[in-house]
Structures are given as structure tokens and as C-alpha cells.
Amino acid sequence: MSNYDKVKIVVVGDSGVGKTSAVYLICNNQPLTSTAWTVGASLEVKLHEYKEGTPQQKSYFVDLWDIGGSSSHENTRPVFYNGVNGIILVHDLNNRKSEVNLHRWIMEILNRDSGKGNQSSDEDFDPEQFAGSSHIPIFVIGTKADTGDGVRQRSALSRATSIADECGADEIFINCLDIKAFAPGSTSAVKLSRFFDRVIERRFHPDHSHSYYDRRKLWPQAPRIFSDE
Ligand SMILES: Nc1nc2c(ncn2[C@@H]2O[C@H](COP(=O)(O)OP(=O)(O)OP(=O)(O)O)[C@@H](O)[C@H]2O)c(=O)[nH]1
């Protein structure tokens, strides 16, 4: 197998929101027809072309760690958060609570070393501090855009209430069962590719990534909390 450099991205969100379905679609370019609860975590790998079409183009492996959302596994999950280079937050567009709960998922990743796990409350979450202290790129996926009226309701919400906006992250709404959800050139595919580029840039070319963080007015003095730096 080719020896490409790789980055690690964890995919988190409540049980049943569609993490496994989204990861499968991203890595296999086809929808998953039958799913089961993810126990622990499962790993899918995508070969990504960094800065495709430019002289800097290079292939990298993107490891997508699909973390089981069941609360019964929360004590064992922190082991999967070591050396994380990026985070994909997944919520069900027809289940507003699943978006609110993403605060807890972020706190679980932040607290992985403290033993607090998922016991943090929504009130503990300070997106500015989170983004500033970790500098970890985040991407948000809203699933089940094909069902209910979740997309309409979600679009009507003020931007201030969106987790993506709180974290300075890009966001897409998709139907994970649609083979065209990440069709080449589509908005979703372009945003996802840009996110992978950011994760790779920050891990392997940190000198080039300042403009991204400057734009988001992050907190430069904050301690670095993730270990692989
Ligand atoms: N209609 C529709 N169904 C979806 C979509 N995404 C996921 N599903 C369905 O939702 C159910 C749960 O999907 P999973 O991908 O297993 O959810 P998960 O987040 O990985 O769940 P856990 O493994 O328990 O953490 C499955 O029946 C999927 O087929 C979507 O965009 N549209």
C-alpha cells in the first residue's frame, strides 16, 4: 500500500443521526443500504487530493473515525480522541436536540484527558474558547435533508443559533442515502474537500494556515490542548 501521510478526523453526534451513513458515502461514493449501531468506533479511509489542481497537489489519507453515539459507550470513547486533527459534527435536521447536543460532544472531546467525559453541560461550552484553545478545524453535517421539514425549519433559525456559526465552521445539509450528495463539483463536495485541505494544512503545513484562523478571530494565547503538535 502506498505510504501517504494521514490525518485523523473524528465523526461525532447522537446515536442514529447518520454518522455511519455519511462516512460510508464520503469514502465509498455510494449509500449504505443497511446499518447497525456502531459499537465503539469504526474506521473508514478516504484518499484525498490536497489542493487539487494546483502545483501543491498531493495525496493524503484521511482517516474518518465514526464514533458510536450510544451513551452506554461514553466511558470508553475518550480513547478515540487522541491525536485528533479535525472534527466532523453530525446532527439530524429533523431533531433539533441532536444539534444542541453537539455542544456536549465537543466538550467530551475537550475533556478526554480530565475524565469528565460527557458529563459536561451545555452551559460549559464556550465556542470561542474551544476554537481558540484547540485550533482544530470543525465541519458540520446536517443529515436527513430528504425527510420532514427539518431543512426549512433549520434555515429559518437565526445564524446565531447554529453550532456551525458558533464554531466558525462550514456546514452542509445532505441526504446520506443519495448517491449524488457528494457529486463532484457540488457545494457539499467542495466544502468537504476544503475542510480536508484545512485539516491537512494545519497538520502538515501550519505556516500556510494562519489566514484561516486570523479570519475567525481566534484566541492566539490559548494553550494548545491537542497532543500531536
Ligand atoms: N432518509 C434518511 N435516512 C438516513 C439518512 N442518514 C441516515 N439515515 C438512516 O438513519 C438510520 C441511522 O443511521 P446511522 O448512519 O446508523 O446512524 P449513526 O449516527 O451512525 O448511529 P450510531 O451508530 O448509533 O451512532 C439508518 O436507518 C440510516 O439509513 C438520511 O440522510 N436520510
Automatic annotation (TrEMBL):
- Tell me the GO molecular function terms: GTP binding; GTPase activity
Q: Which Pfam families match?
A: Roc (PF08477)
Family, according to the entry, reads as follows: Belongs to the small GTPase superfamily. Rab family.
Taxonomic source organism: Allacma fusca
The entry's keywords? GTP-binding, Nucleotide-binding
Q: Which PROSITE patterns match?
A: RAB (PS51419)
Query: What protein name applies here?
Result: Rab-like protein 3
Q: What is this protein for, i.e. what is its function? A: Required for KRAS signaling regulation and modulation of cell proliferation. Regulator of KRAS prenylation, and probably prenylation of other small GTPases. Required for lymphocyte development and function. Not required for myeloid cell development.
The keyword Repeat is assigned to this record: no
Task: Specify the domain of life of the species encoding this protein.
Answer: Eukaryota
